[in-house]
Task: structure prediction
Amino acid sequence: MNENGRELGWDDQIENDGPDFEVLPEGDYDFEVIEFERGRHPGSDKMPPCNKAVLSIRIKGAAGQTTVKHNLFLHTKTEGLLCAFFTGIGQRKHGEKITMNWSKVVGSTGRCKVGVRKWKNDKGEELTFNEIRKFYEPESKPATKFEAGKF
Result:
């Protein structure tokens, strides 16, 4: 079976419970993009219909590990968020004009701010999940004479 899995038939047997879902505390974490799917947003009160990238992002920290689904909407209203993502994975420098290279997204790594969101389902049960609130620009510290021990 490949990494993307396979379609199940109506009469197939199933047994894989999947990984335990863990909610990490709010904070800054390292991440890796492990999957990318092309999708379509049908439109809503806040966003007109547009293409979207559905990313599966593995987040690792001292408190554990979880996977978050993160949508990137391909629309001028969210261009800043697209720029922040591509800067965060090192495909772009701040202020630079680029063509988004989706073929290099899976396997990309970076650092992000993770939040915790709570909501109530149709049964009135409160549920909690992680969401990515910000992608950080990679740290690039060129060696200075001071850092190199030279004055």
Summary: The two ends are 58 Å apart (CA to CA).
